[in-house]
Design brief:
It contains five helices and no strands. Helix 2 packs across helix 4. It is mostly helical. Keywords: Membrane, Transmembrane, Transmembrane helix.
Length: 110
């Protein structure tokens, strides 16, 4: 149970906290950049989670030919929905991480 559920949930939570911090190093300070950070972080985590689920399906015995047989759009929709379902874990962490970013702003005041 720990390997199958707890460790991936902790990893998703940590990624939900880390990805906005990494984007904040690239993006400028300010509210518009904070909104862009939120969108980019959600897209990155949806993609990472989708890739994780695809790897888990492959590791569980679903052949790569079977995955390719569904087509690019079919896989994108199916695994994208799984990635968005995992937002229940990473979305609150993105929110908490984004709320803490204005404390580190030097040039722009909150």
């Amino acid at each position: 149970m720990t390997e199958g559920l707890l460790i991936p949930a902790i990893a998703l939570g940590l990624l939900g906290w880390l990805v906005p911090k990494l984007w904040s190093m690239v993006l400028p300070e300010g509210l518009p950049a904070l909104a862009v950070n939120a969108v980019l972080s959600a897209l990155v985590l949806t993609a990472l989670t989708s890739i994780y689920f695809m790897v888990q399906y492959w590791a569980a015995g679903v052949t790569l030919a079977r995955l390719i047989d569904q087509g690019l759009l079919g896989n994108a929709i199916y695994f994208g929905r799984l990635g968005l379902a995992a937002a229940i874990i990473w979305a609150p962490m993105i929110g908490l991480s984004l709320m803490g970013l204005p404390r580190t702003w030097v040039r722009v005041t909150w």
